[in-house]
């Protein structure tokens, strides 16, 4: 799931490389993925074989901690923006992470070389350096999971219904990870006096950690899926309206070719990186409005007493056809032309404006057929 999520959001980042929040989320997923890879037994043996025993254990804990820290920053930035409170939280969390990472490395260095391959099942838990490693690490995990849970909860309360469902799913997973960290801390203390005890508890807690992390990733992927669906829905809606404006746009552009903004053909990579459905729609909408302004003096000639601003679309389409026939091939630059209001929406919003123009466009298509 981490691989899928990382690839998915990396593709989004390629399309929007300047999105700071998206860069943060991709960094978080990649760090968590690398942390999981470093925790595999085969990877532990390989890294320790190339470096020294214990290096991989410090490395994968550090990478995973940084990944969750970046997740906290993502939601901090989502809620607080670039405010002074965000900078304060950033400084506090960065300083705490630095202290923890230095402490873990120090504990590993202080551990006798023969014991540095320790796990929670080690019979040497009473060694101060080993005990400190697990206490410091799990206390930080408890803190960072709890902090992430609180900030994700704040985002969920502010989000739309579908997006909030994914965020609350993340909250459940983060709570599970926090409980697993508490269990590891308790187990570490219990093993000081009973070195070989409670192996079944360790296995159960390890399974809980895997499930909780999966739930967090499901929440992230669900929220991302909702956003992607809404983006696709918006793009398809704009593509449909772009097509519906074609009859009106074609008629106006035939009379006023200079309305069209000529742009160089985009490369295939540019089209993949930055889909232009929204841009093309808004450009066509502007060109239709500009064309009606240019044509409006002739509309007032063919229908001097008509209500061009609020008339029925069929009647307005008829006047547009007549005005286009009246409009000369070349206009006298010295001639004074006065614009009139045409096809004004009943409410002052973009959707109503588009609807008014599409109604006229449909009427023009009907007249042409």
TrEMBL record:
Domain named DUF6545: residues: 236-365
Residues spanning the membrane: 21-38, 58-80, 92-111, 131-152, 164-187, 211-232
Keyword annotations from UniProtKB, A to Z: Membrane, Transmembrane, Transmembrane helix
Protein name: DUF6545 domain-containing protein
Organism field: Streptomyces stelliscabiei
């Amino acid at each position: 799931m981490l691989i899928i999520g990382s690839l998915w959001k990396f593709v989004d980042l390629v399309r929007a490389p300047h999105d700071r929040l998206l860069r943060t989320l991709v960094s978080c997923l990649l760090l968590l993925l690398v942390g999981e890879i470093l925790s595999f037994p085969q990877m532990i043996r390989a890294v320790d074989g190339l470096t020294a025993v214990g290096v991989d254990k410090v490395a994968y804990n550090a990478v995973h901690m940084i990944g969750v820290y970046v997740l906290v920053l993502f939601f901090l930035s989502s809620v607080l923006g670039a405010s002074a409170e965000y900078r304060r939280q950033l400084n506090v969390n960065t300083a705490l992470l630095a202290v923890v990472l230095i402490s873990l490395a120090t504990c590993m260095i202080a551990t006798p070389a023969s014991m540095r391959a320790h796990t929670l099942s080690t019979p040497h838990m009473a060694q101060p350096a080993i005990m400190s490693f697990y206490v410091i690490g799990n206390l930080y995990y408890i803190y960072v999971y709890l902090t992430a849970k609180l900030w994700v909860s704040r985002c969920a309360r502010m989000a739309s219904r579908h997006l909030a469902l994914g965020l609350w799913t993340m909250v459940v997973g983060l709570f599970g990870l926090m409980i697993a960290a508490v269990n590891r801390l308790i187990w570490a203390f219990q093993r000081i006096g009973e070195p070989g005890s409670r192996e079944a508890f360790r296995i159960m807690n390890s399974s809980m950690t895997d499930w909780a992390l999966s739930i967090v990733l499901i929440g992230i992927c669900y929220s991302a899926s909702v956003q992607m669906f809404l983006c696709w829905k918006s793009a398809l809606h704009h593509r449909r309206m772009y097509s519906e404006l074609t009859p009106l746009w074609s008629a106006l552009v035939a009379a006023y070719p200079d309305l069209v903004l000529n742009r160089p053909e985009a490369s295939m990579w540019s089209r993949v990186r930055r889909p232009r459905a929204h841009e093309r729609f808004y450009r066509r909408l502007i060109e239709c409005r500009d064309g009606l302004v240019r044509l409006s003096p002739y509309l007032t000639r063919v229908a001097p007493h008509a209500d061009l601003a609020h008339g029925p679309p069929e009647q307005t389409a008829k006047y547009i056809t007549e005005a286009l026939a009246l409009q000369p091939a070349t206009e006298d630059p010295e001639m004074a032309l006065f614009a009139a209001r045409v096809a004004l929406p009943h409410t002052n919003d973009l959707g109503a404006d588009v609807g008014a123009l599409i109604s006229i466009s449909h009427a023009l298509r009907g007249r042409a057929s």
